[in-house]
TrEMBL record:
It is a multi-pass membrane protein. The chain crosses the membrane at residues 12-34, 55-76, 96-116, 128-147, 186-206, 218-236, 318-342, 354-375, 403-428. It is found in: Cell inner membrane; Cell membrane. PANTHER family: CYTOCHROME BD MENAQUINOL OXIDASE SUBUNIT I-RELATED (PTHR30365:SF14), CYTOCHROME D UBIQUINOL OXIDASE (PTHR30365). Keywords: Cell membrane, Electron transport, Heme, Iron, Membrane, Metal-binding, Transmembrane, Transmembrane helix, Transport. It comes from Spiribacter roseus. Belongs to the cytochrome ubiquinol oxidase subunit 1 family. This is Cytochrome ubiquinol oxidase subunit I. Residues 438-473 are annotated as: Disordered. The keyword Transmembrane helix applies.
């Protein structure tokens, strides 16, 4: 049996990056949340802020470690599976990836130890500064990674000569046309991911009567974030879509399931795209709505997939459905933000009910949306590694056989299964163990356990809490 090394290498990179991406998108948002908690504690001296920061710093440490382990192998794949691409793009991607290490990794490494172990050993101002620097480091890392990836989608400031890329303008290459939209989209996704994780865990703790006052504050903060950021993400996504329409029209057409260049294009809610038939076998849509969204005119013209030859068309079904999964989850997030607002206005935000029971299940939603968005944008770029310049077939390692790619893919899957099982189990133990310390006023308030899983004992051991009451905090 023969395997296509290009297809298997693509599947391998998709597997690795999908399982890696969920950690940076979480730790970026969580690091900023921890920095905010440290700032509130520094300003007010309220021990509840320190209690929340201490707990979520433990979660951050585990997630950050898993992100490093799961992501470090991606750079190796450039050499093992995509050596032609690595050689061709080295003049640009080499420095960009080096800048990430020199700036982001060094910044995080310098202050992560202070954040994790210096709480009782350095002044509070120093600890706050360390938290801010770690948060900044996560954004610097995201900046350079998205510079590299965005350039592969909308290459600018460079040209290929004799198969080698030469940078003609670093400013244009770094701030390429899609970068501002993609970076903003990812940053907001990170804040939403952190908000839903913290809100879901806080709601679960409130149902258990665990550290009620601290978790009421955490839940309220995160619901305010979700209320404003979820709709903002939809607006940012709209601007990103307009940018895609201008620079990657075939990808946009695949997202919409639109095969023919035409006006009055419907917004398809359901369809069965077929590359073989060069059309949709079945579709249900809202007349002219896609034209209105994309061109702001009902009779606006939207490009069709068949503007590109079949060989240069992306896998339409994958792009079409992954995009709808991302958008559908986005609207679900908006609904939860509005639901929380209604409960807040009724002064029922902290009363146990359906909202608190369903919110923990929403923890998975932003992670699924991130992976779905990643699948949309990366599959929509096919068959190009560098859009319009370098194809997958041209970038793969010449000596790589299909069987070699299969063996390495199986190896990655086995290693990741162990890493994820161990990391997931440890994260669950941290959450199940509960928060350190106790409610203000008790004999345990202000206690600082020193081992990662020593905090608080099982949730059920917490003292019975007073009935939850709604307020506007």
């Amino acid at each position: 049996m023969e395997f296509d090394p290009v297809l298997i290498s693509r599947l391998q990179f998709a597997f690795v990056v999908s399982f890696h991406a969920i950690f940076p998108v979480f730790t970026i948002g969580l690091a900023s949340y921890i920095a905010l908690l440290e700032g509130l504690h520094f300003k007010t001296g309220n021990p509840l802020w320190a209690q929340l920061s201490r707990f979520w710093t433990k979660v951050f440490a585990v997630a950050f470690g898993m992100g490093v382990v799961s992501g470090i192998v991606m750079s190796f794949q450039f050499g093992t599976n995509w050596s032609n691409f690595a050689q061709a793009s080295a003049n640009f991607l080499g420095p960009i990836l080096s800048y990430e290490v020199v700036t982001a990794f060094f910044l995080e490494a310098a202050f992560l130890g202070v954040l994790l172990f210096g709480r009782d050993k350095v002044p509070r101002g120093t600890h706050l500064f360390a938290a801010c620097m770690v948060a900044l480091g996560t954004f610097v890392s995201a900046f350079w990674i998205l510079v590299a990836n965005s350039w592969m989608h909308t290459p600018a400031g460079a040209e290929f000569r004799d198969g080698i890329l030469h940078v003609t303008s670093w400013t244009e290459a770094i701030f390429n046309p899609s970068f501002p939209y993609r970076f903003t989209h990812m940053a907001v996704a990170s804040f939403l991911t952190g908000s839903f994780v913290v809100a879901g865990v806080s709601a679960w703790y409130l149902l258990k009567g665990h550290r009620v006052e601290a978790n009421k504050k955490a839940l309220s903060m995160c619901l305010w974030m979700i209320l404003f950021l979820a709709p903002a993400q939809a607006v940012i996504g709209d601007f990103h879509g307009l940018n895609t329409l201008e620079y990657q029209p075939t990808k946009l057409a695949a997202m919409e399931g639109n095969w023919e260049t035409q006006s009055n294009v419907p917004l398809l809610l359901f369809a069965l795209p077929s590359k073989e038939a060069q059309g949709n076998l079945f579709e249900v849509g809202i007349p002219s709505l896609a034209s209105i969204i994309l061109t702001h005119h009902a009779d606006g013209v939207v490009p069709g997939i068949n503007e590109a030859s079949p060989a240069e068309q992306p896998p339409v079904s994958i792009v079409f459905w992954s995009f709808r999964a991302m958008v559908g989850i986005g609207f679900l997030m908006i609904a939860f933000g509005l639901w929380g607002l209604v409960l807040r206005m009724r002064r029922q935000l902290y009363e146990p009910g359906l909202f608190h029971r369903t919110l923990p299940f929403m923890i998975a939603a932003p992670f699924i949306a991130v992976v779905a968005g990643w699948v949309t944008t990366e599959s929509g770029r096919a068959p190009w590694l560098v859009y319009g310049m370098l194809s997958f077939a041209e970038g793969v390692t010449p000596s790589l056989s299909g069987w070699m790619a299969v063996v390495s893919l199986i190896g990655y899957m086995a290693v990741y299964a162990v890493v994820y099982a161990a990391g997931g189990y440890y994260l669950w133990q941290v959450v199940k163990g509960g928060m350190d310390g106790s409610e203000p006023g008790s004999d345990e308030a202000g206690a600082h356990p020193k081992r990662p899983l020593s905090g608080g004992g099982p949730i059920g051991d917490a003292a019975p809490a007073a009935p939850l009451k709604g307020d506007w905090t």
